[in-house]
Amino acid sequence: MAALFTLVGQLRLVGLALVVMGGVHVVLPRLIDWPRDLAGTSLLTRQVSYAHLFFIGLTCVLLGLLPLALAPDLLAGTRLGSALLLGQTLFWGLRWAFQFTVFPARLWRGDRLRTAAHIGLAVLWTWVTAVFGYALAITM
């Protein structure tokens, strides 16, 4: 249990969380009612939306597998490990910023489920970015 609180443990937990997040993309369209929302759009728009959703989910899984499987290698202080940590920190840091700039409060305020999702995702992206950022800082 104590191993979960080490940096290797935190990197692995972050990796697991990202793999799960990628898997959530399988059911996400139904959770946010995309079929109804996209029904009035062209077939091309629907297909592009679902294709992008697939690749976002796949990206989450692949970015999660890195720390899940290779946490010690990421912390070894190599140029490649540092570059991967830098990329992860920037990617998830931007996702954190989007949580507060792209999704205005009017999208979630007043709806208990969406408010909980907003808060949960804000915490998730803060934790993910902090873990990668800290790992990057100690390997440089």
TrEMBL record:
TM helices/strands, residue ranges: 12-32, 53-71, 83-103, 115-137
Keywords tagged on the record: Membrane, Transmembrane, Transmembrane helix
Protein name per the record: Uncharacterized protein
